[in-house]
Amino acid sequence: MCGQRSLFTESEADLMVLLRKLDHPEWLEWPQYYDRGEIAVHFGVLVARLEGDFAARCTAEQDTQDSSEYGRVIVPEVATVCGTRIVVCVSKFGSLALVCADNPGAFLGTDDAQAEGELDSEDLAKVNRALAELGYVVVSEELLESDYDGPSPMHWSVQRPSWWDRFFGIF
After folding, report:
1. Which pLDDT score is estimated for 63?
2. Which residue of 39, 81, 123, 158 shows the fewest CB atoms closer than 10 Å?
3. What is the pTM of this model?
């Protein structure tokens, strides 16, 4: 049923430790040992998995230029219970992933989307399960929107940098 909460949760404290560990001021757009080919293969497996799980063709945007986001997979609205597309954003850093309904920023996170009846708990669980089984670390939109206080310089146009800007933003 639309609006039910997901059973997947992560420790916010552990995720903050991970974000701080991945943050390095000399490696802004991608990590030191970034392997574009390996990331592309891993991303392709994710796309295929979501297409199989949702029995629908998913749109994939990848190898985003001048960004720490590698790409996005979009599960179409016709394949979801609530009729709202699901967007999975993948960072170039540490297999970080973000799951959101409709688009990043459209809701105050997946809990809000579920409360508004726009994201089904089983659909969210399906995406989270695929990400976990493929080695991605799901970071909530709420955590990523918190103020960035790490050592990396942010783009001059970012007035109030967030962890989203650091690991998914444009440089």
Report:
1. 84
2. 81
3. 0.90
